[in-house]
Amino acid sequence: MKKLFPVLLLLAAPAMAQETQYHEPPAAIRDLLLAPPTPRVSLSGDGSVLAILAVQDFPTIAELSQPELRLAGLRLNPRTNGPSRVSYAVGLQFKRLPAGAETPVQGLPVQARISNPSWSPDNKYLAFSLTTPASEGTAGRVELWVADVATNSARRLLATPLNETFGTAFEWVSDSQTLLARVVPAGRGPAPAADATPTGPAVQEAGSGKKSGARTYQDLLKNPADEHLFDYYATAQLVKVKLADGSAQPLGEPGVLRSVSPSPDGRYVLVRTAHKPYSYTLPISSFPQRIDVLDVATGSLVKTIVDLPLADNVPTNFDAVPTGPRDHAWRADVPATLSYAEAQDGGDPKVKTTIREKLYLLPAPFSGSPQELAALPLRYAGLTWGTDHLALVDGYRWADRHETTWQLDPAAPGQPLKVLFDGSSQDTYHNPGTPVTRRNAQGRYVLRLSQGGKAIYLSGQGASPEGDRPFVDELNLQTKKTARLWRSEAPYYEVPVTVFEGKKGQMELLTRREAADQNPNYFLRELGKKAQPLALTHFANPYAKFGGSFRKQVLHYKRADGVDLTANLYLPPNYKKTDGPLPTLMEAYPVEFKDKANAGQVNGSPYTFTRISWASPVYWVTQGYAVLENATVPILGEGSAEPNDTYTEQLVSSAKAAIDEGARLGVVDPARVAVMGHSYGAFMTANLLAHSNLFKAGIARSGAYNRTLTPFGFQGEERTYWQAKGVYDAMSPFNFADKIKTPILLIHGEADNNSGTFPIQSERFYAALKGQGATVRYVVLPAEAHSYAARENLLHMLWEMDSWLNKYVKTPAPAVN
Fold first, then answer.
1. Is 488 a catalytic residue?
2. Residue from 472, 254, 187, 212 nearest 348 by CA
């Protein structure tokens, strides 16, 4: 393998930086990582065609190390004017359902890089972005392409490159003959120099008396030079593109167009434009923004709906929102009516009020007064439109994880809301499911109705004590009676993808089905009938050379306070009980709960196929380890208590319960157990080593270890440092560096983009551990963000982990008295 880019290692002894070449793990681990990826699929709105997209393998470090700009919370590739980190599809096939052949789409370039597939409202075309990487003498670009289902052919639709600063840069208009696209403005000129000589200091000032704390964000603007770069790359021109010939007509003026959305009737377009003054402490989502409606025919301004200021005084609570109108969107079931929400509590969930939100409608031509649609006692969480007399609205409250769905009649605004569902978002056993939608003739998603419009369909994960059993129900909205139409049955784990009307008028269900020994594939069945489903895809098992699957056992056990816990146990393929207890690797990720019963509910299924991601601990069954994967670690705080008030006690108790259960079964050697985690799991790992002696080693990837560096909240904690100093201090393993005697491997992506997990978290934690004489190794993976991607980095990461486990867990040195 080509050796590129050294990995920086900071070692405890000797205490100096070292450069090394990349290494590879044992062949079994390497081959598992590089097993071929399973294709993605996209179903047309009418269920007649399945697009099958071959998935890109891991990029190389050379690809990942392309130039990258980090501006306003975004990461951009200046060579393409698009996102810098994209998981591309590299091939496209169409399959006519139910029994058509998988036919490759012609006309695509070699090594195509496809993203953002989008079906036309009439389901005859699939539009997508195609990225052309920069090469010697050629600038990169993102282009708008379209594939024709009838001819199985693709073509570039627009010569002007797209501007994908904010993601998908095109939208279909309802006529299926027109698209709206954001493109790089003509004659833009060269980019400003990123290292321009400063013209003065960057200055920020506060003092209004208003509290304006913010969570810890990455990649923010830092100075006027950054602002110039951001304006250059983020500014786009909206154009109307004709499908027939690719001709483009400009609409409106260039601007920092965060989103554009045509109205269902295709006459108008809703445009959200960010503008100055920008912020150096908040990302683009909080910048001032103007909401406009333009005429699609002429591009002229119809109405400025609202101009919102910088959202720099929003409370840090999870369900806090900015003041003023927000969440503007088109009503999906009528030609051209806007809906939006406005907080009635100043955006602060701590304010006591009976009405927390109001919802409004504003129909075309947008010159009248908004009409109040509904008043909500909870924070607004979304609308699902159905008919003139049916819509569903969701609300939530973070403090107790409460959520409600109401049924309302859009033709009778102001009437009392009818509660349809009400309960805890964490009570998965009683979750009624999510309403099933369909794409209407305008390409918008509306409720799929049955029984002459009296009933809706619901699909859900079907959590239960025996594991998840996904389902599809029919709910009569008048009688409130529910009929179960389908449920996943053992030995399979089968997930509903969509419900649609088949060619003969019967309702059909597309599912993704897998089993412990069967790779996920897609199936078609008639809803409500017991007939065998029709297999639509036959994706190969990526682990055929390893025997096809990995043996998984779901363990059920309790921790000391009676909370029910689970873990997935994996054992080496040829393991026999007579082999005795094994060295063990435990992986977990803590989750906060407000109710003991909900904290103990079972999630997952014993029938899922184990697809080993780059982050998985399951690789080590090939090296003779037992693996406890996804050991549940609920952090519980009932009533007025907050979960994190007793974080470390619950953490240690959960870990001990998992080890004890494995030891009881005779498969886990409690004297040879390592713990690992990524992100909040890394934070957990460091805390377990600081507050227990349960483990022989720890592996912490891309974590945060000093909570004073995230003073306005983190993970599920919404209190600030100044409101809960004791909690922040007790939860920071940095404060207990002198207590950590267990060897710990720290790994971090050099370009971590996650809120709160700056690389400095690992840098300073390493320095603290080294200064206290701990056994510690710190590995920085070049160019990696919070989630790792490059082939060379991933192989090296697995080598580091395997070496650490072998040295300190599998065959540890004798303890020194």
1. no
2. 212
